Amino acid sequence: MSTPDVLRGCLLEARDIVKSFGQTPALRGASVAVGQGEILAIMGPSGSGKSTLLHCLAGIFQPDRGEVWFDGHRLDTLSEAERTRLRRTAFGFVFQFGQLVPELTAADNVALPLLLNRVRRRAAYQTAQAWLARLGIGDKDANRTGELSGGEAQRVAVARALALAPKVIFADEPTGSLDSLTGEKVMDLLTGLAREAGTTVVLVTHDARVAAYADRVVMVRDGMVSVDLGAISEQVSAAKAVK
Fold first, then answer.
1. What is the pTM of this model?
2. Which string of DSSP letters, residue by residue, matches 107-142?
3. Superfamily per CATH, domain 3-241
């Protein structure tokens, strides 16, 4: 996927985003565009602002200045209730530690967002069980998340994100708590299923092997997108192959 193709089919965009926390600046005019169906990796050193950029794109944080556009509409000017509704219906999330509800079973965790969107209970659980099966953990549907391994729990998080059929999945260090082999399996599943569904993925990572799953990589430094690497470079692709 070339950069011009991505820009023509732009689904999500940050324009000159500025965001501070108290007196500490996190973003200093960051801009990035994400195409429909694209898998974009955001990389950068710790504290560079890459996770803040993802949270602004997802409508979790409101920028102090700048604009966020989603599907042709301003996202940053929506009310909190409108942004919450959008996150429940159009966005899926996979975070480093899954952020699952430990008291609930795997099936409960996947079904919960569907139930909140007023999907009938039976249909919600059928969808949840189908996604768990596709991710290879259909036999764990009745297990509480505390009884699962880290890789299994992260697969539940991926199932929860995909079950809503979102337009965008935001993944913040989704393999950060996993060993390299388990992380690779999770990334194979996440990106493979996202491509199959035509879902856009915005991925924050510090790991070149994880970034190698993306169509395009941007680097964030000192609160700005310092370079757009375009299509995955040979160096990043080679990093994935290093065992």
1. 0.88
2. HHHHHHHHHHTT--HHHHHHHHHHHHHHTT-GGGTT
3. P-loop containing nucleotide triphosphate hydrolases (3.40.50.300)
